[in-house]
Amino acid sequence: MQVAVLPRSSIGKKALMAVTGAVWIGYLVLHMWGNLHIFQGQEAFNHYAEFLREVGEPVFSYAQVLWIIRIVIVFSLVAHMWSAWELYLQATRARSTSYAVKRVVQANYASRFMRIGGVVIILFVIFHLAQYTWGWVTEFDRADPYRNVVIGFSNPIIVLFYLLALASLGLHLFHGVWSMFQTLGLNSRRFDGFFRGLAVFAALVVPLGFATVPLAVLFGILK
Amino acid sequence: MRLKLRIWRQKNAQSEGKFVDYKLDGVSEDSSFLEMLDLLNEQLIDRNEEPVHFDHDCREGICGMCGLVINGIAHGPKAAVTTCQLHMRVFKDGDSITVEPWRAKAFPVIKDLIVDRSAFDRIVQAGGYISVNTGQAPDANVIPVPKEQADRAMDAAACIGCGACVAACPNGSAMLFTSAKLAHLNSLPQGQAERFDRAVLMVNQMDAEGFGGCTNIGECEAVCPKEISLDFIAMMNRDLLRANLMGKGKR
Ligand code: HEM
Ligand code: SF4
Ligand code: FES
Question: Which of A3, A6, A103 to mutate to test the interface with B (most CBs of B within 10 A)?
Fold first, then answer.
């Protein structure tokens, strides 16, 4: 298994982070797009939620595809965080003494926010599961996801937390999407501008798409 | 010019080290940063104090010996120059200047502003060569090298091994240096035979020396006196990942 030697080098760990990040981007785009069904009304949205369990039948049985996707994304997130943690430790060891004066020349805010932003994202993911998958946070009825969402987002503090997490995600993608191509060695002078542009696009579209739902509930467009 | 200097003083690798303040008068705007330190050292020697130790050799920006973190920026505030090529006219009369050595676990301070960069030598020893049988010198140009590849190799070979990239990187990463040394040979026909082994061996050595990983933030590129591009890091990543998948580097 040649692939197994990869994570031993710093570049291999970084590549693992890039691939698992890409898995999550793919998942997030689908998730965001699917969420927009909520604007078609209660019946359509609840039907969509049920479809997610039925998808793949009859090759797969009930909820099997859903569980496969869940396992892949959980595994990806754990691997992503493991690499991030390992590289963080390696970096703190490599720069054990800091400078008395240090000026940033070229790095942008997004690239320096990756680690903290990542922590915000994982805290958010846990909260989000607790709220809409396990139903521990706000009033919850497993059979009526539409109602769960509307009730959940009528609390402005919760909406604020969602927006904060989405902003962190936007920053994470602003650097991460470009960085991913660099890490996997797919970037080059010719395509650099394209990948930078793609990162800006992803950083805007994904969080804004997600943000429409809590904002629509908060402003009474969805009830 | 009058300057207020705050300089890192450290007796040897074992001692703690601290900042010491100096006032320096009569600095010419046309002098280089190192000449300014020479002036300070002359005064220190006159006063029977230990002069400030710093590395230097060519003083014309080509050898890669010099290197100081000046007011928080490796090689000082001017882009694409070494410390020896930095001139005092970029500062103003009365400025305070903080001078520190490169800070990285893999670059231990030997004395004052001098660090030990032999980790770089060991990275080059690990794979920065091509294996050829010695004998008669071959005719020039027997191996045609396309212009684009020759240019690319020259751009990479411009790296003088100063270590500013490591000094500027918040992760203490040596990716820019290592990628330049790799791209230099991996861009040329002569380097192809050992291309993938070279990538694995040099990256392994880089990790073993205790440098950090890369977060692609580009502070290295911004301070590099030879304007080595992040492009070479992408090329190194590509070569390393392919090499690992092919099982290379087991020599
Ligand atoms: C929605 C989930 C997430 C997505 C889509 C995502 C995406 C990405 C991508 C594409 C990269 C670039 C990889 C590369 O540079 O090659 C990245 C890097 C990174 N991620 Fe995530 N990530 C997510 C969650 C997290 C979480 C939960 C953490 C930490 C707790 C985290 C921490 C990091 C760190 C530290 C980096 C490295 C930054 C760098 O090297 O510049 N991420 N992420
Ligand atoms: S890449 Fe640039 S900063 Fe790094 S050692 Fe080479 S010349 Fe110096
Ligand atoms: S002394 Fe040679 S590059 Fe500065």
Answer: A103
Tell me how many degrees the CA angle B104-B106-B112 measures, rounded to the nearest 5. 60
Q: What is the spatial distance between Cα B45 and Cα B132, in angstroms, rounded to a whole number? A: 51
Range 87-116 of B in CB contact (< 8 A) with A = 98, 100, 103-106
- The model's pLDDT over A177-210, given as tens digits with 9 standing for 90+, comes to 999 999 999 999 999 999 999 999 999 999 999 9
As a whole number of angstroms, the distance between CA B155 and CA B231 comes to: 11
The model carries a pTM of: 0.94
For ligand 1, mutation pick of B173, B216, B230, B238 (most atoms within 8 Å of CB): B216
In whole angstroms, how far apart are CA B142 and each of A1, A75, B3, B138?
40, 53, 57, 7
CA of B83, nearest ligand number:
3
Bond preceding residue A214 cis, omega within 30 of 0: no
CA angle B188, B178, B74 (to 5 degrees): 125
* Residue-averaged pLDDT of chain B: 96
Chain B residues near residue A90 by CB distance under 8 angstroms: 171, 212-213
For residue range B7-24, what is the model confidence (pLDDT) as tens digits? 999 999 999 999 999 999
Provide the angle, in degrees to the nearest 10, between the axes of the packed helices A10-35 and B231-246: 100
Ligand nearest to the CA of B117: 2
This complex has an ipTM of: 0.93
Residue type, B204: N
Span B111-163, pLDDT tens digits: 999 999 999 999 999 999 999 888 888 888 889 999 999 999 999 999 999 99
- Predicted local confidence at residue B236, as pLDDT: 98
Q: Is the CB of A207 under 6 A from ligand 1?
A: no
Candidates 3.90.1150.10, 3.10.20.30, 3.30.420.40, 3.40.50.620; correct CATH number of B3-110? 3.10.20.30
Q: Is B229 exposed, middle or buried (0-12, 13-18, 19+ CB in 10 A)?
A: buried
CATH superfamily of the domain spanning B118-245? Alpha-helical ferredoxin (1.10.1060.10)
